[in-house]
């Protein structure tokens, strides 16, 4: 039928497929008049992240815990509160950078969760880089007077920044991505109801569109099915990079080098067995590039005599090379 393509809208922490609505990419709880408590899953996730990081993220209720640098957790909390107060009074770059360093583990955590729903060629490092911008934006816009946890708010901003960057790199229109998800959900409903793979006509009826419109959408969806060339070449093989499989026309053939060296050795041995006059003719003609007339002047003979000497030397070389073993 059709292949469901996962776009940036479906990437996340594993909750995209259960029908739950995702939080807006840059939805500050105060910017839209929403004063409700943030998503409980983010609270649990943040609590888990705070417990495993060694960069100083505090753990609520763990007053006797020790931070990664050896300081008690309550000392770290007091230091961060003072840093927040300093940043609120004077939002300079130094205070902001210290806050970014303190909350940096949040970025790595969120990037790892988002990356689980993305293709393998997406580098988590690129997601972290995008998430840093979201963290900086969250620090600059966070209002402590609201009494909300910064970690919960920052995770939403970090995740939103990562998804925004992914969408900006996606050449497929969001309407096509949305229609692809709708088609996949319709296929799942029909498959569960009919206990078989539905036909195109049944799928079109379930989606409330004509059969021609469904087939036109298949054509649009086909353009989004991009597979890395390296994945196709290395399918079912233990090959490395695609570059390793491409021939290098400028590279030296080691077999040809060995054959050439062996030929030169055999030729040198054959020349060594010639007479002195034949050696002189071969040397002057092939290595000094002299003409037969010039060689005649050197030897004090006519050009025709040099031609006879050259022919005799070549025949003797050919015979001696034929006598030598090929291996």
Describe the structure.
This protein has 327 residues and is mainly alpha-helical. The protein has helices spanning 40-52, 73-89, 93-115, 124-141, 150-169, 174-194, 200-207, 211-222, 229-233, 254-272, 276-287, 292-299, 303-323. The protein is elongated and about 110 Å long. The model is unreliable at 1-6 and 12-66 (pLDDT under 50).
Write the layout of secondary structure elements.
Blueprint (H helix, E strand, L loop, with lengths): L39 H13 L20 H17 L3 H23 L8 H18 L8 H20 L4 H21 L5 H8 L3 H12 L6 H5 L20 H19 L3 H12 L4 H8 L3 H21 L4
Helix pairs in contact: 2-3, 3-4, 3-5, 4-5, 6-7, 7-8, 10-13, 11-13, 12-13
Q: What is the structural class?
A: mainly alpha
Largest beta sheet, briefly? none
Total strand segments: 0
First-residue to last-residue Cα separation: 61 Å
Helix percentage range? 55-70%
Shape descriptor reads elongated
Instruction: Report the sheet-strand fraction.
Output: under 5%
How would you state the average pLDDT, rounded? 75
- Tell me the radius of gyration: 38 Å
